[in-house]
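Anyone able to model this chain together with pyridoxal-5'-phosphate?
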Amino acid sequence: MDNNLLLDLAKKYDSPLYVYDTDKIKHQYKRITKAFSKVKNVKINYATKALSNVNVLKVFNQLGSGLDTVSIQEVKLGLLAGFEPKDIIYTPNGVSLKEIEDVAKLGVQINIDNLSILELFGQKHPNIPVCIRINPHVMAGGNSKISVGHIDSKFGISIHQVPHIKRVVENTGMHINGIHMHTGSDILDVDTFLMATEILFGVAKQFDEIQFIDFGSGFKVPYKEGDISTNIEDLGKHLSKRFNEFCKEYGKDLTLMFEPGKFLVSEAGYFLATVNVIKQTTSTVFAGIDSGLNHLIRPMFYNSYHRIENLSNPKGRERFYSIVGYICETDTFGTNRRINEIREEDILCFYNAGAYCFSMASNYNSRYRPAEVMIHDGKDYLIRKRETFEDIMRNQEIMI
Ligand SMILES: *Cc1c(COP(=O)(O)O)cnc(C)c1O
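re: yes, here you go
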């Protein structure tokens, strides 16, 4: 992304501002579909929660992607963006039976991750086929050995409970059409991923109406130099071969599914903020920006690293800074960062701001959430207006 274009956008739309480049989204989508091109039926379901602006969803719809959703509201956004219900999978955790039934009524694929709900749903709606979310208890241990972990995770039905699932299926007459796993960030490398897929194959074999196997996500993208990132091409090569073999064993061409969020949108996003103040203390030089954990919480919430550059002074002498927000909390974006000299009113750019950035923004300190701009086919579109004081007051009534 051209720095001058970002600076122009900050001038045109003001800051703080999120900018998304749909070329990068397309590039990542093509990469993953190409990596699995040897499998006959592949479906990528973009994980809506990473970045849920309806225009971004429309881009995925145009690419031929499906959607992975975790709430009925995300399902409704998907339908609004033009997705067919059959191209949406709903993978909630800890929601009510009522919400699951409401989503099922919309014709969306249900994915159940809990035995008690499976039993209730099967008793009431034995004719609606469901997918089951399995916790394979696989994670990468130290020195890349495989260890059994997350026995107490709240997600998924344990592989040790598969006999129980089978009893529920027999007793209710319900139909299991898919097997799913999503173990988040536990599975970093290709070998561990393949290990978990073998466990899913083992489960799939025990059900005779399977149409798809959904391997979830957890794919890594680099946030800084030297970061581990998923080698999707390598995974594609090995898993495609194994998946095709499994389809032969199973006796049917199954659909291979993934549901990446971060992989598809992280690197497509840029967050622009203006420096309000430079504050030199006895130990540190702080650059305080017109933003905070209300707009980009990942550094404080997950301790995650976002590369920060000064777009306004690219030739300035490099110095060390702590970049902090304006919220009355410790909202540090980065400490001890070497950045071209920062002056008040300079524009800083945060990279990898596509996934879990705007979608986790809030109104804390009664601040407005930022505007969002999408660069699509060479044009910039304001896809979300900056909030105003009316947004802060919406749904509040002065009662006393
Ligand atoms: C969050 C989530 C994803 C996406 O995870 P990424 O790490 O962003 O790729 C996929 N599937 C489910 C069920 C999720 O909850």
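Residues 142-149 have pLDDT under 50 and may be disordered.
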